Amino acid sequence: MDEDDDFEIEHVEPYSCVFCSEPIEDENAAVTLTATWMPHWRAAKFSPLAQDFWCHSACLQKNWHGSWPWEPHVLFGVDTGDDRDYAESLALTVARPEDRADIEDMLGLAYEEGLHRSYGSDLVEEVLPFLTVLDPALLTCGTFYVMADMDGQIAACGGFTREAPGSGEVIEGVAHIRHFATHPDFAGFGVGSRLFQHCLKEAKAAGLREFVCYSGLNAEGFYRTLGFKRENLIEIHMAEGVILPGILLRRLI
């Protein structure tokens, strides 16, 4: 190179994680950091876009979105419309036994937030351990469902059984609503309604005539929007001396 040649030495700042400042040398490093921080984003209850996409700082800086399995508008979207599109892309599948831990984790988040709107903190702490334990039979009945995003995060669950919760009683033509819940990050996007419409279709196909629902006070508004009507106030006995005031609702199928 001649001394007279004009050239510039460009100083390039190394890329680093916006959370822990670890250097990001390549795409594999970005993937590793993403997996490391994912549980923390979820524990903080960030929005779905923030927890799963925005925090790929390397992707944002290096424009790597073409090599990731997400559409650019999902990776870079920031408004409510993109959140709604994301919620509508959730996959609905029959729950399996191996989903149990993830479902129960989601139930803990959903029920804790919802119950505090209608009950005192002491009662919520008392009943939460019972509400978040799934009956194993739900995971093999074929009519209990989950909705999950592309990386497997459970966004909602719910379904129905012919057997009544607790007693196991079966009444001809009657189905019982079971464990409907939506992760707080996905609330307000119609996820629960979409799940119920699927249950309604399946129940009709099975020749069932009526849905019965034993619900907490906090969820009455949700069920009313689905066409349920309150029959009366009830007491839901969770365990010896542990009682949750609730409501009995019904809806024709």
Automatic annotation (TrEMBL):
Record-level Gene Ontology MF annotations: acyltransferase activity, transferring groups other than amino-acyl groups
Keywords for this protein: Transferase
PROSITE patterns membership: GNAT
Pfam families hit by this protein: Acetyltransf_1 (PF00583)
Gene3D superfamilies: 3.40.630.30
Ranges of residues in domain N-acetyltransferase: 90-253
Record has Amino-acid biosynthesis as a keyword: no
Protein name: GCN5-related N-acetyltransferase
